[in-house]
Amino acid sequence: MTDVTTLGEFIIEKQMDFPGSSGEFSRLLSAIRLASKIVSQQVNKAGLLSNILGAAGNENIQGEQQQKLDVYANDQFIKAITKRKVVCGITSEENDDFLAINNEGSYIIAMDPLDGSSNIDVNVSIGTIFSIYKRISPVGTTVTKEDFLQPGTAQLAAGYVIYGSSTMLVYTTGNGVNGFTYDPGMGVFVLSHPDMKIPQKGKIYSMNEGNFYKSSKGVQEFIKYAQKIDPDTDRPYTGRYIGSLVADFHRNLIKGGLYLYPATTSSPNGKLRLLYECNPLAFIAEQAGGKASTGRGRIMEIMPKELHQRAPYFVGSEDMVNKIEEFIANED
Ligand code: P6P
Known about the structure:
The chain is of the alpha+beta class. 29% of the residues lie in helices and 23% in strands. It has two domains: 7-193, Fructose-1,6-Bisphosphatase, subunit A, domain 1 (Fructose-1,6-Bisphosphatase, Chain A, domain 1, 2-Layer Sandwich); 204-329, D-Maltodextrin-Binding Protein, domain 2 (3-Layer(aba) Sandwich).
């Protein structure tokens, strides 16, 4: 077998553990690794498992139909993380309120267990997104809401799993970004994308253009700019929108590009959730040399007020984020 580095070896060899911890990060990441293997197995046979497919009949706090696989993924991650005893609380897209897990735990997790779930039964890539913080309240006490309402700049680690043509885990602990591809034969994640960097320039923009006329003038001007024929500036750009944030983000991370979900007349704060969609991917984007903005400022500097609050979101190649920020600044 060629010389491969597994995720487990990588954490031990290459990643400093959290400051002052004794292997807690590796235990936490191994919980995420285990749960993602289990979810990946179900996602890969979702088409066959009628008992999994289809809405669970409940609605989550977003008022979205909960797909059974959403609920299943949420359960698997919560179970695996709880077993490691290092987490005091979890907030999840699938749970209206946060979950108190273990008072002795030092960390909190914000997660979207299965993002893009509307794509589950049409066989399009979906993903898990997670973000890890140190708790603010004292160890030994019950986790509080304030433990979760920390700015993205306080993240210790963040990552995503993409369940696509292959299953990949991409994460950062603030020392760059590394991608691991799951090898089902060996049952391990192997380092396949060391030290990922997003191209500074890009030609791909990812937006639901059905929202064009519901977006601000500055956003509309950017889209028209992107579509203009101008060979000198490599335009028109290419529109690529999968409708699954993790899949669009991952492609743009590798090829260069901009994902945008702006505020619209029907969603004045945008659609994406700050804690478990915007901030974790922003941490990865910045660590890979990219940028993540509300359109008017660094998204990781927002002081959250609510667990499920939304934010306008522009993330990807630095030059493209700068360009749309210019258009937005000029709309005033
Ligand atoms: P729309 C999925 O629900 C999600 O949160 C992201 O994965 C995706 O990019 C976006 O919403 C799709 O939203 O309004 O274009 O269907």
